[in-house]
Inverse folding.
């Protein structure tokens, strides 16, 4: 392993990079917790609609059950160097309650429509309240780029 030179980004650049990744990436790690059964984490496909993350999971999955009991969640893009972490409250929505634009965009991105699946799925929507983004130790200071649902840059 070799060291990588890190150029510290200003807050505006961190926000731009974060938004670019949210718009382009396919997978996100979703962490939920159940009051009795503890933490649960899994990767899911996701869509960023400019304000919220949309994912799908089985209507009767541990993830959906956890969200119904404890809606506070964490999300992470899968890169340990270019870190993007989101926190917010998740809501499970059955297909008929999902805005057509979001469901159609999810289908267009992945070529799969949960609305037509044989087993029931729910869409999980998370509007982030906090976003942290950093490249290595030099960017730990100032890593919060969204607080209380408002971008800081």
């Amino acid at each position: 392993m070799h060291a990588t030179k890190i150029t510290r980004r200003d807050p505006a650049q961190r926000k731009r990079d974060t938004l670019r990744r949210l718009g382009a990436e396919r997978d996100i790690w979703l962490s939920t917790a159940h009051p009795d059964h503890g933490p649960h984490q899994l990767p899911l496909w996701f869509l960023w609609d400019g304000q919220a993350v949309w994912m799908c999971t089985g209507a009767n999955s541990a993830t959906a059950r956890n969200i119904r009991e404890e809606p506070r969640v964490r999300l992470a893009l899968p890169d340990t160097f270019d870190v993007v972490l989101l926190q917010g409250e998740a809501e499970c929505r059955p297909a008929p309650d999902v805005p057509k634009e979001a469901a159609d965009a999810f289908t267009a991105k992945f070529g799969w429509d949960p609305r037509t699946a044989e087993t029931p799925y729910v869409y999980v929507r998370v509007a982030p309240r906090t976003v942290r983004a950093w490249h290595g130790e030099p960017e730990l200071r100032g890593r919060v780029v969204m607080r209380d649902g408002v971008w800081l840059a």
Notes: The beta strands are 27-34, 38-45, 47-48, 53-58, 72-76, 82-94, 121-135, 144-147, 150-151. The two ends are 33 Å apart (CA to CA). The CA atoms of residues 29 and 90 lie 13 Å apart. The chain has three helices and nine strands.
